[in-house]
Design a protein that fits this description.
Layout lengths: L14 H5 L4 H9 L3 H12 L4 H24 L15
């Protein structure tokens, strides 16, 4: 479901990246050393607010919720033509 070389953004999503593309090394650094979820997890462990087992359990629970949401979205029917302009405010 997730490609490690894909950081989840679409091409041209950020005008900064268009002008200043990141190197593979910089992307790797952000994913390993600066990932806010990993930084918070390390801090929680270091401060004694959580243990590895509770963080692993939370990650598993979140993963299961996300997988269920994806399955629900994929299985959902497309909206009818009558609903195309509903909730569009731009």
């Amino acid at each position: 479901m997730h490609d490690e070389d894909n950081d989840g953004r679409f091409p041209d999503q950020s005008p900064v990246e268009v002008r200043y593309p990141r190197s593979k090394q910089e992307e790797h650094t952000w994913k390993t050393d600066r990932d806010p979820i990993k930084v918070l997890a390390k801090w929680l462990l270091d401060q004694g607010y959580a243990d590895a087992a509770s963080l692993d359990a939370t990650a598993s629970e979140v993963r299961a919720i996300m997988e269920a949401a994806v399955k629900f979205a994929i299985a959902a029917p497309y909206p009818s033509v009558d609903e195309v302009e509903k909730h569009v405010y731009a």
